[in-house]
Amino acid sequence: MGLLRCHMVGASVLTVVGTGTVAVGDPSGRLTKRDSNLNSNYETNAVEIEHELANIRQNYLENFFTRKTETGAPHPIIILRNGDWLSGMHCLEFLRDIASRFRIPELLEKESVQLRLNSGSGMDLNEFLYPALQAVDFLHLYQNYNCRIQVGGQDQLGNIQCGLDLIHRKLGSYAFGLTVPLLTTPDGKKFGKSETGTGTRNAPIWLSKDKLTPYAFYQRILNLPDQLISSRLLRQLTFFSSDEIQSLMKAHENTPDTRPVQRALARELTLLVHGGECSCKLTGFHLSESFIQSTVLVTVPL
Length: 302
Fold this sequence. Notes:
Keywords: Aminoacyl-tRNA synthetase, ATP-binding, Ligase, Nucleotide-binding, Protein biosynthesis, Signal
CATH superfamily of the largest domain: HUPs
EC number: 6.1.1.1
Enzyme class: ligase
Signal peptide: 1-18
Strand content: 5-15%
Distance between the termini: 27 Å
Number of strands: 4
Catalytic activity: tRNA(Tyr) + L-tyrosine + ATP = L-tyrosyl-tRNA(Tyr) + AMP + diphosphate + H(+)
């Protein structure tokens, strides 16, 4: 959503699928090492992720970009694989040109490293060097796509900083990083497929309709507990204006039993992830011009 918001105000967007860095696994925010995937799964997973990203891109351009902006033709939204440039980098090249730009003390200060060391589980050398490996992505995009800003979750601050440092130390240039707050549960835990449980309310919310049908996707969001509902959540996951968010939160405060926020959120996210046809079938509305321009407080029949 952070990238799409940047696109909505006129930026070109590059989305990177980690087909190269997945071989190591990002240790950020983890107390233990990630489970290693078999090499045979990399390509399958990458294709599925690219497919979901392409769907979201198309749904965004068709259903959100045109009704929220007046900037004319959209700038490009490009999906890339970092394996395309990382897989061709030799070990000696990485050590000579990349790893030599970092000092051990600064890597030891990274939150991901401190978290693992303090947990007592330790850290492998490949995980320790992961921030330097991800920094190559930013360097490549800077040099080949004129990318000046990297956007990531708050847990990516250390990795983004390494990218900024690498660009400055290697090229003498400056780039910028922007982090967005993570989605968290009421007890402060990160929302994610590896952090959630298996219960109905704690189960992962998959983007793929093969893992979670559009109906189940809609229902999963509709049934979000009231403890999760906040104006911050709406700002993170929708394109609603400040006035619309304020109206929704007021309706939620006055009549929480009608679940106005959950209904609006479920409708918008289903539209973004699965498209207008699925959204209309699930909400019982026809996606007409009057519906698009109508208030977000409309009660959605099931």
